[in-house]
Structures are given as C-alpha cells and as structure tokens.
Amino acid sequence: MLGLIGKKLGQTRVYDAKGTAVPVTVVHAGPNIVVQKKTVDSDGYAAVQLGFGPQKDHRISKPLAGHLAKAKAPSLRKLLEFRDFPLNVNPGDKVSVTVFAEGDYVDAIGVTKGRGFEGVVKRHGFRGGDITHGAKGWHRRSGAIGQRLFPGTVMRGMRMPGHMGQVRRTTQNLQVVKVLEEDQLLLIKGAIPGANGDYVVIRAAKKRKKAEAKK
Amino acid sequence: MKALEELRQAQRKPAEKVPQFGIGDTVRVHFRIVEGEKERVQVFEGVVIGRKGSEGPDARFTVRRVAFGEGVERVFPLHSPRIEKVEVTREGSARRAKLYYLRERSGKAARVKARERSTSTKGA
Predict the structure, then answer these.
(1) Where are the beta strands (DSSP E) in A16-104?
(2) For residue A11, what is the nearest residue in chain B, using CA coordinates?
(3) pTM of the full predicted structure?
(4) Is residue B124 very low, low, confident or very high in pLDDT (cuts 50, 70, 90)?
(5) CB distance from B40 to chain A under 8 Å?
(6) CB distance A185–B77 less than 8 Å?
C-alpha cells in the first residue's frame, strides 16, 4: 500500500482552474526516508519502513540509533511500516510527495483531537432536554437507559458519557488537489483527523482503484 | 507553518489587480459564471455595504441591491479569479464601516450620500 507519513499544517482554501474556491488541508509529507525493507524471505511478509520528521539526536535511544544507522538515516521522529509498498525502494532512499499526483484519491489517518470526558449531547448527539418551558435541571441528560425488571440490565453498547476523541481515525477517499514538490506539500481536499501539527498518514485510497481516480 | 502562510498569501491577487472601492460606493461587479460548458460574465450592481477580512487572502465584500422590490445581497471574495473587474459607478460617503441599516430602509431613505469628488483619491 502506497503511503507517506506527514504533518498536518492546517487548512486553507485555494482557487482551482475554474476559479472555484476549494477547501484544502495542507500536509507536509516529505521527504520520507526508507529505514528498513522487509521481504517475504527474511520476515515473512513484504513491507517498507518509512521515517519522517526531524528529531534531536539525544532523544534517540541507542538501539534506535543503531537501527537508523543501518539505513544511514538521520534522527527521525516517526517510523511506520507500509505493507506491500508498490515502489522499489531501498534503505536510505527518499520518498517524495510526488508519489501522489493531482486527482489521486487518498485516505488520511490521524489521531482526532481529544475532547476529554464528554456528555451524551456532545459525544453522541443526543437531543437533551428543553432549555425553557419550565425545565429545571434536565437539559443535557440522556434519559432512560433501560426497561424494567425484564431485562433488568443495561444493554451492551448503550451510548453514555465518557472519553471522547484522541482515537485513531481514517478519513477515506479524499482527493489530492495539488502536489507541491518544492515544499513537499500535499493539498488534500476537505478535512483530515487531528490537530494542526499532528502526524498523519496519507495512503492511497483503499476502496478506490487508481485508474478510477484518473477519470 | 511558514509554508502554509505563504500558500495562503499566494491566493491573493497581485496588488494592482485588487479592485479598489470603498464602503458606500455603488459598484458593478463583473463576475464570471460557468454554465455547463459555457462561461459568461454576469454583472451585479449595487451598494457595497460592508467589507470583511481587510485586504487579506480571505477578504470579502457584500453588495446589496434592490431587485424587483426585493433586497438582494451577494458576498464576493475579493481575490476570487472569477471577479473580472469591479467598476465604481458612484462614490458614496459613509460614516460607518457596515451599512446594515440600509436593510431596514426602502426607497428614498435607502440612499447613500454621494462623496465630494474633488478631494477623493479613490478607495482609501
């Protein structure tokens, strides 16, 4: 699966050729450095380990430093494996954002913004109660969570308050609006999970063939 | 982060192409619209009742006109490539930045005083 590690810079909008304003997320996604190559013979499956993001040398543990030295790679912040990478690359190679082209469809994987402990209105979109009309202290509650003596228990999976956000999420089938090789930026249409400055994975769309994307 | 800001600024029109007009001016906005395959220029004439976003990349302005007895307002992005040009047909003198009070008025009361031409250096 073709993919890159990147850093979400933020959102803006650009004008396309027709003059329409397109909302885009700007991702700094390169160059990624190939750190390790796994093959069926040696590891049982084929994969490529990519690294991205500058890191201070003293923050790298000695075992990791040795691992990076094998690929003659600099200190990196993020290391991730991509199985069945379609390009023939070797450790030490750089992978540029140009592996994606304008019009391609990609999936964006990131960790959503953490919201902390949230109630049912925000977390699950419950309606809550009336604000006025004599309502008193019953504004953002969930209501009943069960029936009577039968079944006598709260059903599994009942939506309740709890921790919201800060989970890995994938947004599928986003279109690449522009690839800026010079700055190693990808402009991806729409929003992607995570806060600005977070690390995200941009990979070729899983549920769309590349040929289909080109039409 | 610098790259993002540069990208934002790059969406602006070159300074000489940015339309110059002030609040209260009556303008003709030449706006290109795409209908299927064809493209044509539509003119929207009215009074500029407000501007937002300063001169920045996201700047926009609101034009109000009364068409067939019904008030119509359109918001245009200042830097949109679809805006061919903005002609100022009449300069108005406004004492506030947003002329929202025009919405509640009609007929003669909904006029903006013309500006003295002599001293004006346009736009400002």
Answers:
(1) 21-28, 32-38, 47-54, 76-83, 94-95
(2) B4
(3) 0.82
(4) very low
(5) no
(6) no
Torsion of CA A191, A197, A202, A206, to 10 degrees: -50
Does the beta-carbon distance from A26 to B34 stay under 8 Å? no
pLDDT tens by residue, B35-93: 778 888 999 999 999 999 888 888 999 999 998 988 999 999 999 888 988 999 989 88
Domains located in chain B, CATH noted: 21-106 (2.30.30.790)
Burial A85-113 (b: 16+ CB within 10 A, else e): beeebebebebebebbeeebbbbbbbbbe
**What residues of chain A lie within 8 A of the CB of B82, using their CB?**
19
**What is the distance in angstroms between the Cα of A9 and the nearest Cα belonging to chain B?**
6
Q: How many domains is chain A built from? A: 2
Is residue A125 located within the same domain as residue A49? no
Burial profile A56-82: b = 16 or more Cβ within 10 angstroms, e = fewer: eeeebeeeeeebbeebebebbeebbeb
| Domain match, A122 and A204 both | no
B4/A14 touch (CB, cutoff 8 Å), yes or no = no
Q: For residue A4, which amino acid is it?
A: L
Query: What's the gap in Å between the CA of A188 and the closest CA on chain B?
Result: 13
Q: What's the order of all strands across the beta sheet hosting B83-90?
A: B70-77, B60-67, B38-52, B26-35, B83-90
User: Domain span at residue A126?
Assistant: 114-165
Taking an 8 Å cut-off on Cβ atoms, the answer to whether B1 and A9 are in contact is yes
